What does this fold into?
Amino acid sequence: MRGSKRYTRFMANIKSAIKRARQNVKRNALKSSQRASTRTAVKAVDNAIEAKDKNLAKEAFIKAEKTLDSMAGKKVITKNKASRTKSRLNKRIKAL
It folds into this structure.
């Protein structure tokens, strides 16, 4: 089975490294979709801010905040990045 499937550009020889390569492919696919959902949540807040709709922005911010905290907990993004993003969005909402 080692030679039949290639998960990375360089095929590992050690059994644990082969398994790790398999896991990395799966994890990367999962984290990619999770990062995309995070970006979508943040864009929803951005769009509400651009439209100058404070109520919609607040509602979208609550959802984005939940998503950011969840992804930080899953280590998809760092806690600092989640905190920084929330802070910047909140600052822009308050300026409306």
